[in-house]
Amino acid sequence: MTAITSAALAGHPFLRGMPREQLDALAIAATDVAFPGRHPIFEEGGHASRFWLIQSGRVLLNLHVPGQGPMVIESVCMGQLLGWSWLFPPFRWAFGAVADGPVRAFEFDAAAVRARCAQDPALGYELTRRLAEVVARRLEATRRRLLTTPSHLGSQ
Fold first, then answer.
1. Residues 6 or more apart whose Cβ sits within 8 Å of residue 142
2. I want to staple 48 with a disulfide (CB 3.0 to 4.6 A). Which of 31, 38, 72, 91 is the partner?
3. pTM for this structure?
């Protein structure tokens, strides 16, 4: 793991346009990481102590389905945010995540970022706003998938 600079963070789509002083605050809590393919990044129900901005590769989000095991429900690719449970108590992952192949990412210490957000409400607002946009896009994508997937529950 390597420490990273605010200039490196500035190029990531999730942080693009963020003020330099906010990027400086985030860089202190960030490292550059790599995961090999099939590496479990986090597990459903585990403590959400980190989050990632994907630089390359793809991560599969999965949900444990009783009697079936893990089911892939979404993928997160280059330029996207991985993980939002770190921001909301009780800080537990709602899903699991596995690297689909080699993945490079900026990894952030969630407690350190939350502390910086508490010290700088403008940073907290900016991260929350950006994260809310991600959540809204993913909910809309899920809605579209559900509307286009044939139902096997029968019709009325």
1. 73, 74
2. 91
3. 0.90
- In order of their start, the domains of the chain are 2-137 (2.60.120.10)
Q: What is the pLDDT along the chain (156 residues), one digit of tens a residue?
A: 567 999 999 999 999 999 999 999 999 999 999 999 999 999 999 999 999 999 999 999 998 889 988 888 899 999 999 999 999 999 999 999 999 999 999 999 999 999 999 999 999 999 999 999 998 988 887 778 778 876 555 444
**CA 112 – CA 29 distance, rounded (Å):** 6
How many Å apart are CA 102 and CA 14, to the nearest integer?
20
Of 85, 76, 77, 72, which is closest to residue 131 (Cα–Cα)? 85
